């Protein structure tokens, strides 16, 4: 029987002295269980491998036929590439993007350089290695300050939107010190926030677009999908509705966003799946904020994990998501398997169209 190993990093409590959001990119046990159960139902044998220092030896011994990789990696700006690099060395095929794409994707400035190179709209920006560097003349307040290579809104607190030089310098010092990395300063885009998932390879498909709705945030909150909005104000016990899918947008804007998302996917050589975050600027023009080639896939709808929420908006189940992406990834890797619960490209397209039609 074909063996599929899942590689992941489990969420844990940060040790004394580490920022409270240190492990926020890591996954819950319930996510790994849901993935494993879906893969088993597809007729595979499964194994779990925590993506730590022992992972290489385990992978080498086990030699799974395929790896379902959702590991964030342990440290450094290339951490998301740690497991994929091991797998390339061992010649074991795996889900999602390769080390080059993952490293660029995690680095927001490098991603933006690639976007600019490909004429894909993205906000004006500057990388700060030190808090006292001169601000480029082209950047106008309000600005947003974020760690250069984090995800899951790590370091993007409500006060990251800065209105003047004093606020900027304070936030720069804070981020550079706490996250031990440069900070990215970007023009603040005040329009609607939309995120879109793309799935597939030869014929990548955009899922229904999801809007982040800021109305339900506390009144004093800045309109951003901050750390607090993802993890503090919206909890399982006390959920607030921050997502709306499919987003109610004009057919023109929808087409524009889908086009930009697929261009981005191709420009960065993304494989199998990805979530691309965008925000509207002047004249309702969409700009790409960043890409997530290891998208969050928490299964519980109450968590508001964005990609599963898009999937559920089509009336489809979590298992079908896992099986569909696995099917596309295995096909890319030349592995044949008789999937019962995965969607062929033309069927997935039908579901997307139906969900989008209903939203209008
Ligand atoms: N230039 C910007 N203008 C306006 N809002 C922004 C900008 N950059 C980031 N934001 C806000 O901050 C949020 C987090 O930013 P971003 O998506 O870059 O971080 P992330 O931590 O990588 O997110 P993810 O959880 O998707 O990995 C965005 O969803 C958006 O609300
Ligand atoms: Mg994001």
The number of helical elements comes to 11
Q: Write the element-wise H/E pattern from the N-terminal end onward.
A: EHEHEHHHEEEHEEEEHEHEEHHH
Per CATH, the architecture of the largest domain is: 2-Layer Sandwich
Overall number of strands: 13
- How many structural domains does the protein architecture include? 3
Overall residue-averaged pLDDT value:
95
Distance between the termini: 45 Å
Cα Rg: 20 Å
Bound molecules: adenosine-5'-triphosphate, magnesium ion
CATH superfamily of the largest domain: ATP-grasp fold, B domain
Contiguous runs where pLDDT drops below 50 for at least 5 residues: none
**What is the molecular shape?**
globular
Q: State the major sheet.
A: 6 strands, antiparallel
Structural class call reads alpha+beta
Q: In the CATH scheme, what's the topology name of the largest domain?
A: D-amino Acid Aminotransferase, Chain A, domain 1
The CATH class designation of the largest domain is Alpha Beta
Range of helix content: 25-40%
As a percent range, the share of strand residues is 15-25%
What does this structure look like?
- The protein folds into three domains: 3-105, Rossmann fold (3-Layer(aba) Sandwich), CATH 3.40.50; 124-187, Dna Ligase, domain 1; 193-359, ATP-grasp fold, B domain (D-amino Acid Aminotransferase, Chain A, domain 1).
- The chain has eleven helices and 13 strands.
- The chain has helices at 29-41, 55-62, 82-90, 99-106, 108-117, 165-179, 227-232, 251-267, 306-312, 318-332, 345-359; strands at 3-8, 45-50, 66-69, 125-128, 143-147, 161-162, 183-187, 193-199, 205-206, 210-212, 243-244, 273-280, 286-292.
- Strands 8, 9, 10, 11, 12 and 13 form a six-stranded antiparallel beta sheet that branches. It has a four-stranded antiparallel beta sheet with strand order 4-7-5-6, covered by helices on one side.
- Bound molecules: adenosine-5'-triphosphate and magnesium ion.
- The site of adenosine-5'-triphosphate has 21 residues, from β5, β7, β12 and β13.
